[in-house]
Amino acid sequence: xxxxxxxxxxxxRLYDISAVEVxxxxxxxxxxxxxxxxxxxxxxxxxxxxxxxxxxxxxxPQTIPTFGQNFFEYVLEFIRDVSKTQIxxxxxxxxPFIGTMFLFIFVSNWSGxxxxxxxxxxxxxxxAAPTNDINTTVALALLTSVAxxxxxxxKKGLAYFGKYIQPTPILLPINILExxxxxxxxxxxxxGNILADELxxxxxxxxxxxxxxxxxxFLGLFTSGIQALIFATLAAAYIGESMEGHH
Length: 247
Fold this sequence. Notes:
Mean pLDDT: 76
Low-confidence stretches: 13-21
Distance between the termini: 65 Å
GO molecular function, one term: proton-transporting ATP synthase activity, rotational mechanism
Number of helices: 7
Function: Key component of the proton channel; it plays a direct role in the translocation of protons across the membrane.
Subcellular location: Membrane; Plastid, Chloroplast thylakoid membrane
Order of helices and strands: HEEHHHHHH
Protein name: ATP synthase subunit a, chloroplastic
Keywords: ATP synthesis, CF(0), Chloroplast, Hydrogen ion transport, Ion transport, Membrane, Plastid, Thylakoid, Transmembrane, Transmembrane helix, Transport
Structural class: mainly alpha
């Protein structure tokens, strides 16, 4: 009898997991458009964290940097290295774009893991990392697409489109398809990894004692940072590729 009750309770927990707010959203109507309110709220929080941190650091720069200034200078140097490695000597104008992508995704991923979003109750859905919504990752990927098209066109003009028939016009459909799959790959890679990490933690917390999921959560913080680095690195690589004009 006890075994049966235990099995029923386990199945009930699994059913509750299956009903976790996947696919449910809290909507706002803005100018005739229906938007995901929880994504806007968490995105605003992430943007506020980044803006406040930057303002606090740059409002009184020191010749001998303090810990906070030193940390942000290290982050800036890291982003510049990533941009220079992938784009080349003309990386300068693209550092703000690559840095914005990296920092927004990094802070978004970590906010989903560290901030107690679930204590804030919504009529529908729940608050989570902005990158946990496919619309956010698609938007970031499309921004990257616009950036590398702009980079190629601004440097080569209409001659940029000549790459589609290189090395032979027979490859035209494949080269066009490649440009469509780049944002798709960026979007689903980021979204899939973040969502999978959150679902794994939810399942483990429900099925086993808290001692086991805690190391997994710390591993999730590490992989979240890696995902931000991968996205920023690929974005820089695509921009560098469009400026060089070869694959």
